[in-house]
Amino acid sequence: MAATVAIYGVGFCSFSDNLSTKKLIKRRGNGSIIGVRSVCSRREVGTAVRCSSSSKAVAPLGSEGDGRGCMIEEEEEEEGGGDVMRFKMSDFKVLDRVSIGLGGRADELVFEAIVKDSNSPLHNIKVVLRKLVSTQAKRRGTRAIEVLKKLARRKLMYHSYSMQVYGYISSPTSGRGSFTLVHGYHGSFSLRHWLQQSDWLPTLEATLALDEESVRRVGDDTVGGPAVSRQLRITRILMRDLLIGVNYLHSHGLAHTELRLENVHISPVDRHIKVGILGNAADFYEDGPNSSTLDNNMDRRQMMIAFDMRCVGFMMAKMVLRELMDPLIFLKFKSFLMKGNDPSCLREFLLQILSRNSPSGNVGLQILDRNWGAGWNLLSLLLATKPSKRISCLDALRHPFLCGPRWRVAPSMDIIRWGLGSTAVRITEEYIYKQPQRNRLSYFIELMEMLNAHSRPKNWLELLPGKWRLLYCTGRQIGLTLRQPSARVLIGDVYLTINRASQLNTSISFTSDIGFTVMNGRDWPHDKSGITGNLEVNSLFRLTSGRRLYLKEEKTSEKLSFGQPNNQDSLAQKLSAKKWRKLVPYKEFPSSLPVAKLVSADIEVTMSIGDNLNQNDVTPSSIVQEIRVQVPPEMFDLSRLVCGTYVDSRLLVLRGVNGSALLFTRSMC
């Protein structure tokens, strides 16, 4: 017979022995205590066990308070299935405080308790009592028990990656019709609370006890090191554990649907991530996998897996980029994706909103930039705009970002292209263009052009429209150090905006936007605030297919040299090496490559200056002349652009009539 239970309590607090604790006590009108609220910050280590009691029939649950009932059907447990235990309130010693990491919803009351029944396999084990008040909350509790029966056939995986649900306390005979879920206690902090601690990194390292077994799971057998390496190791361990747990659900036809840092706990006993009590887990197949609506079920399965993977992407972003723990910054981050922007451009967007003087010291940016920008690639795949483009758990576990240096990973061609582009962008950000850097940049750009996956004009018409920021030009660079310009002009960002003139033809409009500042005085002042201006160049292009020819020059005894080696010869020599022979789809250096040919019309140049020029020796013509000296000629005279050789969702390479390459990145401003 079910025991009558009446629990009146308020949860969401944590233990503290050596810190001050503030208690808030709620009382009835007659003075009796309803509940206790306590808040502190010390972490408590929990205990986890495996439940293996004998199978018992489960009695029905009812809710009399709202006239609607929750039912757990009686069924015979299959061999190897999960055992659901029915408890009485007298089986527990309820504690007067609750850990802060166990905080639930508004329709839940959370308690910590010790099992005092000597006949129970959980004797003296700390558990969590989650009293479910509303009808929806009771439905979540019933669902958690249903999922337990479905998943616990593989007990080892269930106990390793799910928060263990032991059973329930039900009192249908009471006036309130309470239903209390009994589940495992896995530490006092959720993953969110772990990351919010000032000393979270050494504390997590100590909790996970990074021994040989744990580092073997990520292919990294090193310990210690700089903060970037340590945080990358922890991120790999947490992400791999999380993905294994989510894949365990997906392989059983379930989607979690509520993956958040608040719902994930780290057990200090087995050092695994627990993905919650699964009260909102949803089935992929509404009418079973063998129903007649198989196509609809497959679409539903794909959408639900994609939703979970997007949630995993948000969790990874917060784990790596600590600034995203700020709700305002995370709102900007999420709104960027909600507007339909391509996640591959996240780096360009986040560099603008993340402060370079942040408390984390941009450790997260360094982590994502490592290994040829592999972290940004994984993040973009997890957060892909189209659900069909999002990466699966198994593919994410094989991604180079989550594989340590001890594991040999064969990267895909997409990751190779991504790595080449990311490395080229990082080199341009150093702003030290000595000859070795210039040669390396030219080499990477040539490789990107050879591996271009979008050579057809229709691909270019889809990817070209947008705003692009100029990063680098392989042509001649003229600085300000060794000359005295007639006008002190400081060049800002240079953008190229591309729009389709009509959807019916291949005409596209190019707009070059050059921002500049005119300094006052004869010398360069420390204060660079001057008169701002803008130079705009417009032209209309027609895009057709074409080929870029590589002319082989005859070797002569006397060869003119201007300090730049022949990039084609050096590239051909490197492509013949064993490292690139398996990756590049050419046995020898090709004589030509497919490109998007650009045929220009007339150009129109306009310049605007924010204020009147007070200097007699500075005229608009001298400003234009100085801009032409500092800016690549192709950005001033757009008719010099003859073809596009590489394009993807984030990078663009255009070639000028003199052979110089212009590297652009898609701008989000």
List keywords for this structure.
669 residues, alpha+beta, six-stranded mixed β-sheet, elongated
Description:
- The structure is a single chain.
- By secondary structure, the protein is of the alpha+beta class.
- Helices cover 31% and strands 22% of the residues.
- It has helices at residues 135-151, 155-161, 191-195, 200-208, 212-216, 227-251, 294-320, 327-338, 346-353, 363-382, 393-397, 413-428, 435-450, 457-463, 567-575, 578-581, 620-630, 633-636, and strands at residues 22-27, 33-39, 85-87, 92-94, 108-115, 126-132, 165-171, 178-184, 254-255, 265-266, 273-274, 282-283, 466-473, 489-500, 507-518, 531-549, 592-609, 641-647, 651-656, 661-666.
- The strands form five sheets. It has an eight-stranded antiparallel β-barrel, surrounded by four helices. The protein has a six-stranded mixed sheet with strand order 3-7-8-6-5-4, covered by helices on one side.
- Strand 18 (641-647) and strand 19 (651-656) form a beta hairpin.
- Residues 1-82 and 555-565 have low confidence and may be disordered.
**Order of the strands making up the biggest sheet:** 13-14-15-16-17-18-19-20
Structural class: alpha+beta
Low-confidence stretches: 1-82, 555-565
Overall geometry comes to elongated
Largest sheet entry: 8 strands, antiparallel, barrel
**How many angstroms separate the termini?**
66 Å
Can you summarize this structure?
It comes from Populus deltoides. 31% of the residues lie in helices and 22% in strands.
